[in-house]
Fold:
Amino acid sequence: MDSAVALACARAEGLACHALSFDYGQRHRMELEAARRVAGALGAASHATAQIDLRAIGGSALTGEAEVPKDRGRIGEGIPVTYVPARNTVFLSFALALAEVRGAEDIFIGVNALDYSGYPDCRPEYIAAFERMARLATKAGVEGRPLSIRTPLIALPKAGIIRKGLELGVDFGLTHSCYDPLAPGRPCGRCDACLLRRRGFAEAGAKDPLPYPG
Structure:
């Protein structure tokens, strides 16, 4: 959902957007089909899916057999087992390479540091550090064409992200958030991602179009 709104923000600036998704061995693979739908609906100039098997590294309930936490009452306190080690660093590195190839000046990522599960690679200081590294590590940066990492949602509560998405015409029925979907791909309604999403829609005074159980 957040990535869809980040893409909508970039498109609202009139930018040609090259969307990038990741098949990294995640158990919630429904998000890959959702990403394809969203990229098409929001007019991305291209959409690629990179293959990275993070199951070989492990360390997360999203890439292994550990149980995804449900019904957590204090989301954001501590780092949960759904944290995928260095995931955003891996993703941003691939995006950085794509940006160099495309000649892009901006990389948009839908990270959020308010209503989130407590992942360290969603914080502003992490994004700022990666941006500094990117300017040192790329041909573009060395030649005076530094890339910027854009985080239009980082300081918004989930309700604010939803309101912004609705203002920009995002069809949230095309999106997927659940970490542990039920057959045939319905959201569980109880994992951190579902709870944050449902709370966000309630606080935004909007109806979530996804079909939750019960």
